[in-house]
Amino acid sequence: QKEVEQDPGPLSVPEGAIVSLNCTYSNSAFQYFMWYRQYSRKGPELLMYTYSSGNKEDGRFTAQVDKSSKYISLFIRDSQPSDSATYLCAMSNFTGTASKLTFGTGTRLQVTL
Amino acid sequence: SAVISQKPSRDICQRGTSLTIQCQVDSQVTMMFWYRQQPGQSLTLIATANQGSEATYESGFVIDKFPISRPNLTFSTLTVSNMSPEDSSIYLCSVEVVREGGYTFGSGTRLTVV
User: Fold this and answer.
1) What's the CA gap between B47 and B62, in Å, rounded?
2) Maximum pairwise Cα distance, chain A
3) CB–CB contact B42 A8 (8 Å)
């Protein structure tokens, strides 16, 4: 079993839809959770960084962490064609340069006009 | 956050040859990280490069295959040696974003071995 599971998609939604992207994990030691967006032929770009259970909002993006269920989500409201990309979840035991990130395989999202 | 320039952006190489990938950061950083991203698989950490000391390799990766240099606090190279088609992948360097959390990545090197 992988430490982090993420549905690879592809996920296709119409413009304006609410998108829900999810990851589950098995390592209860994970404390820090991140979401990255990766456009084609580009490196991953950090979208959200959260610690502990709860919600964190940034514009149209909301990251949600449920440690009891070992489940994290990224919600995108009013999705735009420019949101079409691969979204990667990542997590680590602690913060700092000694921490090691464990990534999901990524979900490919396509927002259509 | 730091800006990373990675070169080359892509290359097609013959098996048995080596390719050196360069990573330049616009600020001084303690550690630089090298990842591999294979199709349909998650990003996998190859090694951590600390200036002035030997790189630390993750399980499954060895120095003879992936030698790393870290001559100063803004630059690192990763060499993929004696390449085979199985080495075809995207290679990325990364640094920590200290104030914001998380990590910044370069745009990657897309390597195809034929």
Assistant:
1) 9
2) 43
3) no
CA-to-CA distance for B12 and B83, rounded, in angstroms?
11
Euclidean distance between CA atoms A55 and A57, whole angstroms: 7
pLDDT tens readout for residues B29-86: 888 999 999 988 889 999 999 888 889 999 999 999 999 999 999 999 999 999 999 9
Structure tokens at A96: 């700092």
Task: Judge whether A35 and A56 are in contact, CB under 8 Å.
Answer: no
Contact (CB, 8 A) for A7 and B71: no
pLDDT cut 90: percent of chain A above it:
74
Please name the member of B9, B40, B97 whose beta carbon is closest to the beta carbon of A46.
Answer: B97
Q: Are strands A11-14 and A107-112 parallel, antiparallel or unpaired?
A: parallel
Q: Which amino acid is at A45?
A: E
Give yes or no for a contact between B40 and A8, defined as CB atoms under 8 angstroms apart.
Answer: yes
SS3 breakdown of chain B: % helix, strand, coil, rounded to 5?
5, 50, 45
Residue of A nearest to B38 (CA): A105
